[in-house]
Amino acid sequence: NTQDVTKLADGVYSISGTMVKVDKNTYSMSNDAINHTIKLTVKNGKYYITLNFNGLTVGQKLGYLSQLKYFTTGYTVDKYGNPQGTLADVTIESYQKNADGTLVSDSYGTNYPDVVTFELIPETLNDGYVPLQVFVPIMDAISSGTGTQPVYLKLDWRSLKATTSDDPDFDKNDNNNSNSNGNNNSNSSIGNSSLGNNTLGRS
Q1: Nearest CA to 124 among 99, 149, 160?
Q2: What burial class does residue 141 get, using C-beta atoms within 10 Å of its C-beta: 0-12 exposed, 13-18 middle, 19+ buried?
Q3: Is the pLDDT score of 179 beyond 60?
Q4: pLDDT per residue as tens digits for the range 100-149
Q5: Which among 18, 16, 20 is positioned nearest to 150, based on CA atoms?
Q6: Which of 7, 107, 147, 178 could anchor a disulfide with 197, C-beta 3.0 to 4.6 Å?
Q7: 16 has a pLDDT exceeding 50
Q8: Measured between alpha carbons, how far is residue 110 from residues 17, 67, 96, 98 in Å?
Q9: Per mean pLDDT, which range of 43-57, 84-98, 182-196 is the poorest?
Q10: Is the Cβ–Cβ distance between 31 and 54 less than 8 Å?
Q11: Which residue has the higher pLDDT, 37 or 185?
């Protein structure tokens, strides 16, 4: 892809992305919680990322990402690779819902983000890495203190292509519908009927 990513025309683009740990290489557990075809919107020269979240299976339980924050421009990195700096809240466009339209809730909470948007910091246009902080309650329940983790959203600028906001790939892998098949099971986070559909990284 030869286009200059720092000078994109206003419009909607799709780009591939993965969630990686602070070594910028190993997949984060939160990688299973995102749709990997990501919406990039350029408006008045500003860049915005929209992420679509899925449920993720941890052990034999189904959980959701509950909070996402991003590091603002000017962040630094400590000797372990952890991003340091000012955290900002993403804009939550919608929440995870059951087939009947009710909010997904489980023993760990509710109001789990489904679609979120945030402004892309300039650093990402150079290196492709978006510094984020995630909170996954189910991980914290399994091992206290592990639910909050720094991660990077690794964008593949070579995959960038112009598209439209209704591109079906943005909703691909969204397993809200499969949750609804065994919703009582997925709410109790047991029941294999709800787990098989949601293990995105099974292969």
Answers
A1: 160
A2: middle
A3: no
A4: 999 999 999 999 999 999 999 999 999 999 999 999 998 898 888 889 99
A5: 20
A6: 178
A7: yes
A8: 26, 11, 9, 12
A9: 182-196
A10: no
A11: 37
State the pLDDT at residue 188: 33
- One-letter amino acid at 189 equals S
Q: 199: number of CA atoms within 13 Å, CB side?
A: 12
Q: Give the residue from 47, 49, 54, 57 showing the smallest Cα distance to 16.
A: 49
Residue ranges with strand state E in the chain: 11-20, 37-43, 46-52, 56-58, 61-63, 67-71, 76-77, 83-84, 87-89, 91-95, 105-106, 109-110, 113-119, 129-135, 148-163
**89 CB-near residues (< 8 Å, 6+ apart):** 69
**Two tokens, residue 202:** 């099974």
Question: Scanning the structure block, which residue is given the tokens 């492709």?
Answer: 128
